[in-house]
Specification:
Blueprint (H helix, E strand, L loop, with lengths): L3 E7 L2 E7 L9 H15 L6 E6 L20 H21 L4 E5 L2 E3 L1 H7 L3 E5 L3 E3 L11 H11 L1 H10 L2 E3 H6 L5 E3 L4 H13 L3 H17 L11 H4 L9 H11 L7
Helix pairs in contact: 1-2, 4-5
């Protein structure tokens, strides 16, 4: 299995690092499962008061590890398990974490990167960070639960632009649309996040956990969070029926063969 999700403790701050050498920290199946396990473990720790989610070597996350896709994406059952168990299992673990989670975003924040950032409470980015979800070029849609997550965090207007036109937006634009709390120069983003994390650790930890629980409940009540499973069952029933389709195969094959897809 390739890639890893590493946790390092510095005082009361846990740094969760996405690491996939040579792939801009693209998420492999192993990494999604590790993310789930790491956040589940952090949830039960009393010595941690804040979590920083970051990528290694100047990039947040460039999406999914497409080199793995031919192994499972063309089978509907396997594709459903990947999105509903592996991907959503990791995202849900971040969403369920009662510790404040800060995203440190640098470089590429694409596809899965946008989804991961959408799970965080506070998002701080370097000025040259780039955001997008260009999976239409790969011949497949974003899974329903993941669309709901991104839409709740970035807004429907932005979600539509990212998914329907494969747009890439810079940090300033994402800040103006309300997705980012702060944008600072690339050389200052790590310190900005460190300062924010330190500030969080000085506050009452139980109050933070209770605030997280309250904010989740309110967001759900007003439709500003990813919907409960039963509210999108009608979408999930046929959400992965495209698995063996020609567009799906062509998009992934073209990417791996480094050519333009013919849709």
């Amino acid at each position: 299995m390739s890639g890893e999700v590493r946790v390092d403790l510095a005082g009361r701050v846990a740094r969760v690092t996405l690491s996939h050498n040579g792939k801009l920290n693209a998420m492999s199946r192993n990494m999604w499962r590790a993310l789930r396990d790491q956040f589940a473990a952090l949830q039960g720790r009393d010595d941690v008061r804040c979590v920083v989610l970051q990528g290694e070597d100047g990039n947040f996350c460039a999406g999914g590890d497409i080199s793995e896709y031919p192994d499972f994406r063309y089978d509907e059952t396997a594709l459903r398990e990947f999105h509903e168990l592996d991907v959503w299992g990791g995202l849900q673990a971040v969403l369920d974490c009662d510790l404040p989670v800060i995203a440190l975003i640098q470089g590429a924040c694409m596809g899965a990167g946008v989804e991961l950032a959408s799970c965080c409470d506070i998002r701080i980015a370097g000025a040259t960070a780039q955001f997008g979800a260009p999976i239409a070029r790969l011949g497949f849609p974003m899974a329903p639960r993941e669309v709901a997550l991104v839409s709740s965090a970035a807004g429907l207007l932005t979600a539509r632009e990212l998914l329907l036109s494969a747009a890439t937006l810079d940090a300033a634009e994402m800040r103006s649309r309300g997705f980012l709390n702060r944008v600072v120069s690339d050389d200052k983003v790590a310190q900005e996040v460190a300062d924010m994390a330190q500030r969080v650790t000085t506050l009452a930890p139980q109050a933070a956990r209770l605030n997280k629980q309250t904010l989740r409940t309110i967001a759900s009540a007003v439709g500003l969070s990813a919907p409960a499973p039963d509210s999108i069952d009608h979408l999930l029933a046929n959400a992965y029926s495209y698995a063996s389709g020609a567009e799906h195969r062509e998009g992934i094959s073209a990417f791996l063969e480094k050519r333009k897809p013919a849709f």
